[in-house]
Amino acid sequence: MAVFKLTINGRTHQADVEADTPLLWVLRDHLGLVGTKYGCGIAQCGACTVHVNGEATRSCVLPVSAIGAGKVVTIEGLSAKGDHPVQQAWNEVDVPQCGYCQAGQIMTAAAFLKRNPKPAAADIDSAMSGNICRCGTYHRIREAVQLASTKLKK
């Protein structure tokens, strides 16, 4: 076991865990940040997506020891009031059905829109293709990402 000092959602946290513990379990089990979901455990579904240094990252396979001085943002830290443009668009378009995948979808979309603030539909489909939605709300996800791109600060 080792003590890891982590910057998560702008705050410093400590976790006394094994070095190979996936970030997902540190977030959920040790820090109580349960917005990030477990889906597959092999980085294939996207439910566990968080930002590490601004990049969408699958936390289920990322060992906590790999974070180092990196900055982690979870769905809880995306915006203080849940009013990030992607979150607003998600609500306006009424994207979720069961909602399980939505935190990962939103985190992927937010990182994508930072890199590509005015995407074409094909760009959105490509960027979001690694996130699985069991309910099949892909058309609403695309619509929400397009709407969010119009809400971004210029």
Automatic annotation (TrEMBL):
It is an enzyme of class 1 (oxidoreductase). Its EC number is 1.3.99.16. It comes from the Bacteria. GO terms for molecular function: 2 iron, 2 sulfur cluster binding; isoquinoline 1-oxidoreductase activity; metal ion binding. Gene3D superfamilies: 3.10.20.30, [2Fe-2S]-binding domain. The keyword Metal-binding applies. Residues 2-78 form the 2Fe-2S ferredoxin-type domain. Keywords: 2Fe-2S, Iron, Iron-sulfur, Metal-binding, Oxidoreductase. PROSITE patterns: 2FE2S_FER_1, 2FE2S_FER_2. The keyword Iron-sulfur applies. This is Isoquinoline 1-oxidoreductase, alpha subunit. It comes from Fibrella aestuarina BUZ 2.
